[in-house]
Specification:
The chain is an alpha/beta fold. Among the domains are: 278 residues, Rossmann fold; 306 residues, no CATH class. It contains 28 helices and 12 strands. Strands 2-3-4-1-7-8-9-10 form an 8-stranded mixed beta sheet, with helices on both faces. Strands 5-6 form a two-stranded antiparallel ribbon. Strand 5 and strand 6 form a beta hairpin. Helix 5 packs antiparallel against helix 6, helix 7 runs antiparallel to helix 10 and helix 21 crosses helix 22. Keywords: Membrane, Transmembrane, Transmembrane helix.
């Protein structure tokens, strides 16, 4: 429910406060009361809904925080002019908190038990489409052009890859429903998979072809569900058109300042329809293979040919659907609907023939072999599309781009490999569950299940003896070996000593705030070891780029080897050369034990992930949080079925709030002003909102009255390297950033040397703000300097030790707002008068 205090969104308790301090949280979805540094009862909803909302201190909390602090029970003496009681608001400032954590991946604050259940289901759904969001980031990672000339080939190629990523999801559920359950779990008139509900026993009287036709509805239902859920989310986030009224239309503006960037476009919806059409045509093709396995080649071959043509047209349609801001919009919506209609028609024909045609014997072994060929071919085409992106030329200095300019290939690989792991785990876990007492290793055997005639006639049998597609067990087995090798390599590199003291030689390293009863030197000495340890740990966490690169290389090698092994295992021996027969014999027999072990290992991992999603909550979601927020920051221009772009709603909401404040009359002589305060990923929302604000009719006037205060942000080393044309040095005005080094004692040593030598020079900022101050500390595992790794006018070092509690604590990624340097920066940006000693 939306709540609103005051006229035009203005709070009632701000009569004398002309500076808005608007706080935006980061990746961990800090609750509003924590963001305001108050008790829960001391905050109130100003406006918003469970997805995005604005909060403020209550009038009582504001009044208490501004009273002089005296010693006594419940009060702590103010021993430093820069100190204030937690949650106190300086006179002249109105403080608000913007909460956007309900978008995409977490639950809204105070959701209760019902909200917690919905949050678990939402996390499971968004985890399923996580590969799509990862791949979507790839379309923004190559060197984006300033106009449409020559742009379609690269972005179109990535859109085609994203369609194949959807087909991999379809294939994983099709193999379960159409092969394992419909074909293998029945012997004549018996249901032999006792794990399945008894209600399915009634389908045992059906023919194998009829059960396969019914099973084909499952992958289509999954894709339709994803289509509906993600489409509904896009509609809920599609608020830019009703909030922002931009006037600038110049293609030379930064992407974040262009009107088309923020609005969910009809092109994205058409692309989603194209994915749905591709998925349905793909299932129709699988039904055609089932018709051939049911000894109806006269019907199966035409179905395969027609469905393949429809799929080809859908791929062309995906290529031609312009979704990037620099592309021309010239695709016809009618053509997209026509392709969807053709896909539905060919599927209905295939399903009807399969379900109501002649009741012949369905060869389950032939069906599974056909599914194997389709799966490995789909994987091969996807891998070739990723390889094609390696040839995207980067004309700028590759040292300052992520993974030396191969960002698109790495992002696509991340989505590809995670999608393959998800698909393999789905097949392994379900196959192991259906198999009853048999071991996971039995899933990978190659022999036919039983005599094909037993699928239509009564045969005595024991355990279900379920087999899964050849690619899935081989991938998990080989991938486990590759990951072990890569992890050993990374463990050796990460175990080296880390020391960042040289980089901090000019920073304030002993800036502790201590109670009067404890000498500064005592606490500093007592916590020196913990400070050094957390600095070293943060330096290791900063190695995300080389770690992900190594993992993707290892996973890529595993996929290539798996393709060779899978093709080799399903090809008939025939007249193969002796060395090929020897290779296959070695792999099949001597790797069988390892594959069985890997299947069991991955099954445990899969169950742990599922249990963590249901019971673990944030501890399971948090490692994926950065990837989620990184990918979901960008509009869904590559893969439309991924998690929605949270900035498409968060940015317009923040922009509207700032416009309301700035356009209202000031209570004192002068004009209203804003200090936009952002933590971690909130810095991305804040920077984007500034561009949207600057693109409004009064943008030039707004620019002079808005300042920015960030802390613990990733703008320079992550977004600046991953997406330079969106948030790179020329956009926000930073020094181009070198990659961290895995084997260096200080990962950022090469970056610092590059800046000092003049090889990397600060670029003028296009960020529409009058002043920007950013705080950082070396113990922050997820935050970095915003301007440069050497001292500069923008970056200021924040205190690492918080002595405001009972014992001193070494802060890492949080508690910036409690430091004296934060209060000093806030006063400077808000142009507050000097504080009197003891003042709140």
């Amino acid at each position: 429910m939306t709540h609103n205090n005051g006229e035009a969104g203005m709070p009632e308790n701000t009569a004398a406060d002309d500076v808005l301090e608007l706080r935006i949280h980061g990746v961990n979805n800090m609750p509003p009361y924590e963001l305001l540094d108050l008790d829960k009862a001391d905050t109130e909803l100003l406006m918003g809904d469970p997805l995005g909302s604005f909060w403020q201190p209550t009038a009582d909390a504001l009044h208490r925080g501004r009273q002089p602090q005296v010693e006594g029970i419940g009060r702590r003496a103010v021993v430093d002019p820069s100190e204030s009681p937690r949650g106190s608001v300086p006179p002249g400032i109105h403080r608000e908190a913007y909460s956007w954590g309900g978008m995409v991946r977490t639950m809204p604050p105070d959701g209760g038990k019902g909200g917690a259940v919905l949050a678990v289901l939402a996390r499971a759904c968004w985890t399923l489409v996580l590969p799509f969001s990862m791949a979507n980031a790839g379309i923004w990672a190559w060197q984006l052009p300033t106009d449409h000339a020559g742009a379609r080939f690269r972005s179109g190629l990535i859109r085609i890859f994203c369609v194949f990523l959807t087909l991999l999801l379809v294939m994983s559920f099709a193999s379960v429903a159409m092969d394992m359950i419909a074909a293998q779990c029945f012997r004549g008139s018996r249901l032999v998979c006792t794990a399945l509900p008894e209600v399915l026993s009634s389908t045992a009287r059906w023919s194998g072809a009829q059960r396969v036709a019914a099973g084909s509805l499952v992958p289509i239902a999954v894709v339709i569900a994803v289509f509906v859920v993600t489409g509904g989310a896009r509609l809920r986030y599609n608020v830019a058109g009703s909030i922002l009224k931009p006037t600038a239309q110049d293609d030379g503006e930064p992407l974040l300042g262009q009107p088309r960037f923020w609005q969910t476009r009809s092109e994205t919806h058409r692309l989603a329809i194209t994915h749905l059409a591709s998925a349905i045509a793909f299932v129709a093709m699988l039904c055609g293979a089932a018709l051939i396995a049911a000894q109806l080649p006269g019907a199966g071959i035409p179905v395969i040919v027609v469905s393949a043509l429809v799929l080809l047209v859908a791929l062309v349609q995906a290529y031609l659907t312009d979704t990037m801001p620099f592309e021309r919009v010239d695709a016809s919506p009618r053509a997209t609907v026509t392709v969807l209609g053709a896909a539905v028609a060919v599927y209905l024909v295939a399903a009807i023939v399969l379900g109501f045609g002649p009741h012949t014997v369905l060869d389950g072994y032939a069906l599974r072999q056909a599914f194997n060929w389709v799966m490995v071919t789909t994987v091969l085409v996807s891998a070739l599309l990723i390889a094609a992106t390696l040839f995207f030329r980067v004309s700028v200095d590759r040292r300052f781009r992520v993974w030396h300019g191969f960002g698109p290939a790495v992002f696509l690989s991340m989505g590809f490999h995670v999608g393959l792991i998800w698909s393999s785990l789905v097949n392994v876990l379900i196959g192991n569950w259906l198999n009853g007492a048999r071991s996971a290793a039995s899933l990978a055997r190659e022999a036919p299940v039983v005599d094909p005639r037993c699928l239509e006639a009564y045969c005595r049998t024991g355990n279900p003896d379920i087999r899964i597609g050849t690619f899935y067990p081989w991938l998990l087995g080989i991938l486990l070996i590759a990951l072990i090798v890569v992890l050993v390599y990374l463990a050796i590199g990460l175990s080296f000593r880390r020391d960042v003291d040289d980089r901090l030689e000019h920073e304030e390293r002993a800036n502790l705030t201590l109670p009067p009863t404890e000498p500064r030197s005592s606490l500093q000495g007592r916590l020196a070891g913990e400070v050094a340890s957390k600095r070293a740990a943060a330096a290791r966490f900063h190695l995300v780029e080389p770690v992900l690169g190594a993992l993707m290389i290892g996973a890529g090698v595993a996929v290539i080897l798996t393709l060779g092994a899978a093709y080799g295992s399903i090809l008939p021996l025939g007249d193969m050369p002796p060395w090929v027969i020897a290779y296959r014999t070695f792999v099949v027999h001597f790797m069988a034990l390892w594959i069985g072990l890997s299947l069991a290992t991955w099954a445990v991992i899969g169950l742990a992930v599922i249990a963590g999603l249901v019971f673990g909550g944030s501890k399971v979601v948090r490692p994926l949080g950065l990837i989620w927020d990184l990918a979901c920051f960008l509009p869904t221009a590559g893969h439309p079925l991924g998690a929605p772009c949270y900035t498409e709603r968060a940015v317009p909401e923040v922009t509207r709030r700032m416009m309301w404040w700035l356009d209202a009359p000031a209570q004192h002589p002068g004009q209203r002003r804003i200090v936009l305060v952002a933590h971690s990923m909130g810095g991305v929302v804040a920077a984007s909102a500034l561009f949207a604000l600057g693109n409004e009719k009064n943008g030039d006037d707004y620019r002079e009255r808005v300042t920015l205060l960030t802390f613990g942000v990733q703008l320079r080393p992550y977004f600046g390297r991953f997406f330079p044309e969106v948030l790179g040095p020329g956009v926000i005005g930073t020094v181009p950033c070198r990659a961290p080094r895995l084997w260096a004692r200080d990962p950022w040593r090469s970056d610092r040397d590059s800046v000092r030598s003049g090889r990397a020079v600060a670029v003028p900022s296009a960020l529409p703000t009058s002043k920007w101050i950013s705080l950082w500390r070396a113990t922050d595992y997820l935050g970095f300097p915003a301007g440069s790794t050497i001292p500069n006018d923008r970056d200021r070092y924040a205190q690492e030790v918080d002595a405001g509690g009972y014992v001193g604590a070494v802060d890492t990624h949080s508690s910036y707002m409690r430091t004296p340097v934060y209060r000093s920066a806030l006063g400077e940006l808000a142009e507050l008068p000097p504080r009197a000693p003891g003042a709140p």
